[in-house]
Amino acid sequence: MTTSSRRYHITTFGCQMNKADSERMAGILEDMGFEWSEDPNQADLILYNTCTIRDNAEHKVYSYLGRQAKRKHEQPDLTIVVSGCVAQQEGEALLRRVPELDLVMGPQHTNRLQDLLQQVFDGNQVVATEPVHIMEDITKPRRDSTVTAWVNVIYGCNERCTYCVVPNVRGVEQSRTPEAIRAEIEEIGRLGYKEVTLLGQNIDAYGRDLPGVTPEGRHLHTLTDLLYYVHDVPGIERIRFATSHPRYFTERLIKACAELPKVCEHFHIPFQSGDNEVLKRMSRGYTHEKYRRIIDTIRRYMPDASISADAIVGFPGETEQQFENTLKLVDDIGFDLLNTAAYSPRPGTPAAIWDEQLSEEIKSDRLQQLNHLVGIKAAERSQRYMGRTEEVLVEDQNTKDKTQVMGRIRGNRLTFFTGDINKLKGKLVQVKITEVRAFSLTGEEIPVLVC
Ligand code: SAH
Ligand code: SF4
Ligand code: F3S
């Protein structure tokens, strides 16, 4: 079957890992001759890259799928693909639920999209969800941005947090080799990108599965070593990484971040709960004291560092007092950003079948209280930028005000200022901050003096 002039559309749900996977799959489809269609209803191939972290994420997919399945009855050559975490979780059950699907593929099969589609075009309905060793990909991702790029560093997760589906759907940890990672970053640098974000579910666990130990008994390959190893890649001006797990966040890593000029002073380290009993029942492997020590150490080395995190409220059995311990942690630390969620029982996870599930009312009430505090603390944290000069990497036009461009400061806050995107895209600009909001800033470009 010829694929030329066929059009595709990808809808992505979920985390940065899924977004990075979607870019790889878009690259594969374009290599196969598909062209992007902005309108999903004009596309010959529809791909949903799905997320199942919470119940509502999963439900969204089914409503989208229902519509496309109907369309297939009028347009039988429409190809419908479901990839990502719902695909992995549901596997064949998804075909029974939506028989119009052509391909169901788990995240570990991302790089195999072309092979799998070939089987579909040969007339098969295909399910690819068995665990595999993730192959290095030779196709080029079609990246959404021309300024910032994601680079996978470690796939999967070896933790067993009692609320979480990720280990079930993403499989065990698989680290890419430092050489493969560096080669990808070098390519990104050659293409003119300025910033990379290294990605992993627990990125600070990088390298545990790679061979080799140092004379002191440490793994030979760690995130710290990787940062040193990729730091001098030409063209790349900024390096970020996410998500970090408190269990693996070492002082050695913090020191490296302070020492390496390209590594931005922003750390995303989810804590989930501020209560030790809850943390234990979540199987997180640290106490709130340890978490606080990590943040203290970061601030000792980098006093201005931005800290963001994720937290869950309404975990089964969470008492009012335990919830207040979360509020207290948030109040004490003062996060620049906090992603909050009400606990959602997930199939196949231990906590989902525990007795002490809390009511939706309690969960949403706690979520509201926490979000209120988060807004106040983030606004307080923003104040420090007022009047200061910050380096902004310009990414795009401000969609709401075309006279402005937008980008991020090193500390990751979105920042707007008046300017021409054609001249500024991909540039690092010194911006004096004149207005601060909880999660974003506005400023003015400081002209560069030529002496
Ligand atoms: N690996 C990262 C986070 C991955 S999932 C870590 O360990 O921190 C992203 C976030 O989704 C989690 O940090 C958690 O806050 C949230 N999450 C995961 N499972 C959830 C569930 N069952 N209910 C509500 N939120 C959940
Ligand atoms: Fe989920 Fe825990 Fe793994 Fe994070 S560390 S992905 S929360 S199991
Ligand atoms: Fe969702 Fe899968 Fe990411 S469940 S949050 S897309 S790892």
Automatic annotation (TrEMBL):
Q: Which catalysed reactions does the entry list for this protein?
A: N(6)-dimethylallyladenosine(37) in tRNA + (sulfur carrier)-SH + AH2 + 2 S-adenosyl-L-methionine = 2-methylsulfanyl-N(6)-dimethylallyladenosine(37) in tRNA + (sulfur carrier)-H + 5'-deoxyadenosine + L-methionine + A + S-adenosyl-L-homocysteine + 2 H(+)
Its Enzyme Commission number?
Answer: 2.8.4.3
The name under which this protein is listed is tRNA-2-methylthio-N(6)-dimethylallyladenosine synthase
List the Gene3D superfamilies. Answer: Methylthiotransferase, N-terminal domain (3.40.50.12160), tm_1862 like domain (3.80.30.20)
- Summarize where [4Fe-4S] cluster 1 binds, as residue positions: 15, 51, 85
One example of the protein's molecular function in GO is: tRNA-2-methylthio-N(6)-dimethylallyladenosine(37) synthase activity
Q: Quaternary structure per UniProt?
A: Monomer.
Alphabetized Pfam families for the sequence: Radical_SAM, TRAM, UPF0004
Name the protein family.
Answer: Belongs to the methylthiotransferase family. MiaB subfamily.
Enumerate the UniProt keywords alphabetically: 4Fe-4S, Cytoplasm, Iron, Iron-sulfur, Metal-binding, S-adenosyl-L-methionine, Transferase, tRNA processing
Cross-referenced PROSITE patterns? MTTASE_N, MTTASE_RADICAL, RADICAL_SAM, TRAM
HAMAP family from the xrefs? Answer: tRNA_metthiotr_MiaB
Where on this chain does [4Fe-4S] cluster 2 bind?
157, 161, 164
Q: Which parts of the sequence belong to the Radical SAM core domain?
A: 143-380
Q: Which gene encodes it?
A: miaB
Q: What does this protein do?
A: Catalyzes the methylthiolation of N6-(dimethylallyl)adenosine (i(6)A), leading to the formation of 2-methylthio-N6-(dimethylallyl)adenosine (ms(2)i(6)A) at position 37 in tRNAs that read codons beginning with uridine.
Q: Any stretches that span the bilayer, and where are they?
A: none
Predominant location category:
cytoplasm
State the organism named in the record: Brasilonema sennae CENA114
